[in-house]
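Researcher: Please predict.
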Amino acid sequence: MGKKLSDSEYDDYFKDMKKKTRKKGGGWFRKNWKIVTGSLAVLFIAFAIYIIAGLPSLEELENPKPQLASKVYSIDGELLGQYFIENRIETNIDSLPPFVVNALIATEDRRFYDHWGVDMTRFFTAMVKNIFTFSREGASTITQQLAKNLYRLKGRNENAFETVIRKIREWITAIQIEKNFTKREILELYFNVSYFGRSAYGIESASHIYFNKKAANLSLPEAALFIALLKSPEYYDPIKNKENAFRRRNVVLRNMVNTDLLSEYEYEKLKNQPIVLASEKISGSKSIAPHFMEYVRKYLESIAEKYGYDLYRDGLNIYTTIDYKMQLAANKAAAEHLKDYQQLFDKNWNWNKNRSLLSNFIDRAIRNSEEYKAAETTEERADIYNKLKYDEQFIENVKRVESTIQVGFVAIDPSNGQIKALVGGENQEFGRGLNHVTGIRRQPGSAFKPLIYLTAIENGYYPAYTLLNQKFNYNGWEPDNANFEYSGYMTLREALAFSVNVIAGRMTTSNIAPPSQVARISKSLGINSTISPYPSIALGTSEVTPLEITSAFGTIANRGVHVDPIAVLKIEDRNGILIDQFVPEYREAISPQSAAILTDMMQDVVNYGTGAGVRRYFHRPAAGKTGTTQNFSDAWFIGFTPQLAAGVWVGFDDHRVKFTNWYGQGAKAALPIWARFMEIVYKEQNLPLEYFELPSDITTMEFCKETMDLGDTRLAGENCPVKVTDIINPKNIPALCDIHGGTPRIRREDNRGDTGW
């Protein structure tokens, strides 16, 4: 056993132990205080660096660059649409009505002109209220909100730590903004940056989307709605949540009363006014020419690297060739015709007679569905396939899509190639689908025949030249006339007017219009698609785009001078500085004499031939050609006036769906759209009356058409009141008229020495 300690020895022992303990602990801290302090300093610096790393740079603070939508204008100055990541149009604060600013300050930041970016009084007041009332009152100033929106300081799904970090950054940035900008400049930035819902960034964009007007023309209730949307564009959406929007708008108006910016009397007058929007179907990407917008977008993207711009962020001003009123006329003509024609088709089309085709469509639709593509295993795909295969709603939707009549319409100014109107499909609200003007190639059928006749004219043949309208066999090819009717000799003029297949076939199977030459001339006219040089070219068997063939007809209208279609006139940057302007390129494709002769012949197509239906709507000088492909798959009408060339294609996305009988002819399915468009345009725009002109070196001869004795060769005169005007190519010796039974026949003597009737 150890020695027993006395009380005094116990006290001394414990005192000594305390000293040793204190000495030992104190010694550790004294030895390591530098490490502890250094560690804390490192942590603080790392935290500070983390905070600073998320702040905008000095360059960004001094030159803020919000993402701006690039604006697309029509040739007459109307806004067609925009390209954007954020749909934003800049505006100057001086253009805004004063009550817009008053409503903002009264609601969002009443001490805006007194604080330096952060309102500490409001912040602590909000903190106390939030703690003791469990509410969520905000304390962000206008400058803090600007900092958050302008420099994207807020992320999605923030946790508590991230919120604290973001608030610190927001405060620092707000103070820096106040140091760099005046209060007026801060307000202007705020209105240009803020999000108002429905893809609208900035108050100018919002004004166009919600009310179809400029921000300068906003009324006070409309401005109050925009201030209401700042709190929550979704919750206060005036379409989805109309009552919420109405109440919040009135809160904004009441705030103006409370801050003496609006009288009680005015408030009582305004508070019951309903919210009236431009449309109940608001879309941030709405355009009257969506397919044209997409066509231009692809072109601008293709040259973006050359000019170094960002189409979706740089706020470009893009000036196009589209005529706003003509585009509206095209939309109207197409929509009205398709509405009636869809009903007609639906009555005649029978899916029960096309079950195998429907089965094919259903199979394709299932395999292209997002649900099927997202399946990860073979079993899952099989289950989805079997489910959709027997889903009645899914099947009905497939039927509707596949049997929807589509349209491609384009109008061009033939003198300069400018595209004046473009309808790329049945759906006039969405432009990312198939563009049926530029994105399809289809057989033009008889709409291609004018190019056959043009080749003949270039070779010295003329409208009065006759060919036999009888069936023939050329190496196994036997073309039929559409009506299966045949006659004797027929002039080229009449054959084109009535679209006689046999006559066109005789031309391509002889030296009158050799297929290889037709292909070369087609290319010179602006058709870039491959034209197969076979005799069947006479019936339009080579596929072309509607834009190509319309451009080719425009070359004929432009006296043989071709101009490539052009859509963009010039591009400016956000400050109006010219980036580049685009001018058309001209080249002579055919002689003006040949173009004039063919134009004169094509007028008869409209006056009394297959295109005579034009005259039900339109009574100005016009030339054109109908086209119908085999089994009524495609319907065409391409035509022009002295001022405009326009082309229409009507059909279906899948060739296997087609019109079932006569109503699928080009004269019935496509021509009315062309004629209605011309009728509307000429009436509404009061275009002057113009006639097709003949070159001075074209000889016009008039022949007697009354019944006379065989051999009478008098030219038309006082004793011959009925006249037939025909055109003689100056390359040829003028013909003589032989009257036989009232029908003029032309005796030809050409420069090759050939003669014949």
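Model: Residues 7-53 form the longest helix (47 residues).
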